Amino acid sequence: MQMHSKRACSLLQQQQQQQQLLQQQQQQQLQQLLLLLNGFARLGVHHDQVQRAYVGQKGTLPIIVIHQRPFGETLVFFVGPQRRLVKVLVPAQQQQQQQQQQQQQQQQQQQQQRRRRRQQRERGAAAAVEAAAAAAAAETAAAKAPAAAAPAEAAAAEAAEAATEAEAAVEQQQHHQEAAEAATATAATAAAAAAAAAAAAAAAAAAAALTT
After folding, report:
1. How far is 153 from 172, CA to CA, in rounded Å?
2. Is the domain of 11 the same as that of 66?
3. Which residue stretches does the UniProt record annotate as biased composition, category Low complexity (predicted)?
4. Which of 54, 48, 17 minimizes the C-alpha distance to 32?
5. How does pLDDT run across 13-65, given as a tens digit for each residue?
6. Residues 128 and 85 in one domain
7. Number of structural domains in the chain
8. Model confidence pTM above 0.70
9. Alpha helices, DSSP H only, in the chain?
10. Do residues 94 and 102 make contact, with C-beta atoms less than 8 angstroms apart?
11. 104 lies in a domain?
12. Which domain holds residue 17?
């Protein structure tokens, strides 16, 4: 029984401590809100313009956040030393601009990624087309190679025949030249013999004339 009673007492004490902590926190929040409400006029914010207000914490500093009704601005108050409120204005337009900038940056990044992927695909397709064209050209060249080799061989054979004919013509020309030289020598010999015969005939005629 004593153990149960001790446990019950400790549980009651814990619950009371928790309740006290909650009450203290609520009182602090109420004090902060009261400070904020009292400071609305000093800060240039009318309490009718407040759409929503709540108390939060930024790191170790408690903050009070107020959403204004007409302009949609957000006021953030840092509760500094000596319970002084430090106001930070975050306009809705600025928030929208920041969101728009973030969206634009994301869209630009996505567009750049799409553009890079498209360029990579186009480059890959162009490289594939070039490779296919090169392969086709190689196949065509390989197919034409035997056909191109045949005319070259024929031309080489014709050149060899022409060289043989040229050699034969040179030899014939040499033979003709030798024959012409021999005929010329024979004609010269015959002319000399005729001249000698004419001289002999003239001498015989002169001798006959002297004897008569």
Report:
1. 29
2. yes
3. 156-172, 180-191
4. 54
5. 888 888 888 888 877 776 766 666 665 555 566 656 666 666 666 666 667 67
6. no
7. 2
8. no
9. 2-43, 92-211
10. no
11. no
12. 2-90
